Amino acid sequence: MIVVMGATGATGTALLHSLLTLGTPVRALTRAPLRPIPGISGTPRPPVEVQYADATDPQSLRIAFKGANQLFLAMANSPAQVELETRVIDIAAHTGIEHIVKISAPAAEPDSPVAVSRGHHLIEEHLRASGLTHTILRPYAFMQNLLRLAPTVGQGIILGTTGDAPCNYIDCRDIGEVAAAALTRPDIAGGTYTLTGPEAVSYPALAARLTTLTGREIRYVNLTSDELRDNLIRNAHMPIWLADHVAEIQQLAVSRPETPTTTVLDVLGRPPRTLDAFLHEHHAHFRR
User: Fold this and answer.
1) What is the pLDDT along the chain (288 residues), one digit of tens a residue?
2) Which of 17, 86, 187, 229 has the fewest C-beta atoms under 10 angstroms from its C-beta?
3) pTM for the full model?
4) Cα–Cα distance for residue pair 215/218, rounded to 1 Å
5) Which H, E and C letters describe 191-249, residue by residue?
6) Is there a contact between 266 and 193 (Cβ–Cβ < 8 Å)?
7) Where are the domains of the chain?
8) Chain centre to alpha carbon of residue 143
9) DSSP E strands: which ranges in the chain?
10) Does 3.30.70.100 match the CATH number of domain 2-140+171-196+259-271?
């Protein structure tokens, strides 16, 4: 039995689709088990076993992990992430889980300039010390997060701090398929994989593609890190730690120019989904 933690997120939902397609028994964990999981409930495929669990509730995790041997671990970034994920790993190790596939982050290093990545490094180290078989996935920016740009695209602008630096993007559905491979193929389990789409695209180039897509001019406005933080806090109502994170990962793209990897092709035997295909799929979202 495979347990999916983070089942209602974009990557978790994509993983559920992949596992269902493979006919693999799966238990989806959620804090709201009566709420339908997007795209899963009502499908003609074998039903997903949905169960309550909360990372702040250790007993719920012990119950949820019972009878399972593999765990997919994906949690939203937060100031409590290191505490919560290390607790999950410890409980998994004591309840019979043998293999954990963890969603991590690029630059997961002890001296990373990105605070969230430093946290992922600590969690990765804890996972290694657990003695469990573990597979680490380090995806770059989710294409699905680009949908959050719609409000400013509607005003004809994209805001950022990356200048002309290229940025990697990956479709969450590709992450889900790689995670499914890691959970079902022994030849994939146990590695560390950096995941990207097929190309790195700068914000000015993204603005040009959105201009073509929407039929109206979209400009990229380059801000300082402080200006971007202030805008995200004031206008997007982000908490300070999250605004700091966005600014940090954008500056990382400047200090460490991003280039695509071939991991998705190597693992799945097909190229990753393209940014252009994703934008066209969601064209109506940007034309509002």
Assistant:
1) 899 998 888 899 999 989 988 888 899 898 776 666 665 655 545 567 888 888 899 999 999 999 999 999 999 889 999 999 999 999 999 999 999 999 999 999 999 999 999 999 999 999 999 999 999 999 999 999 998 888 888 899 999 999 999 999 999 999 999 999 999 999 999 999 999 999 999 999 999 999 999 999 999 999 999 999 999 999 889 999 999 999 999 999 999 999 999 999 999 999 999 999 999 999 888 876
2) 187
3) 0.91
4) 9
5) CEEEECCCCEECHHHHHHHHHHHHCCCCEEEECCHHHHHHHHHHCCCCCHHHHHHHHHH
6) no
7) 2-140+171-196+259-271
8) 10
9) 2-5, 26-30, 49-52, 70-73, 99-103, 133-139, 141-142, 157-160, 167-170, 192-195, 200-201, 219-222
10) no
Token representation of residue 23:
């006919």
Calpha distance 67→8 (Å, rounded): 22
Rounded CA-CA distance 65/50 in Å is 12
CA angle 279, 281, 287 (to 5 degrees): 65
Rounded Cα gap, residues 115 and 285, in angstroms: 31
Angle between the N-to-C axes of helices 81-94 and 58-65, in degrees from 0 to 180, rounded to the nearest 10: 40
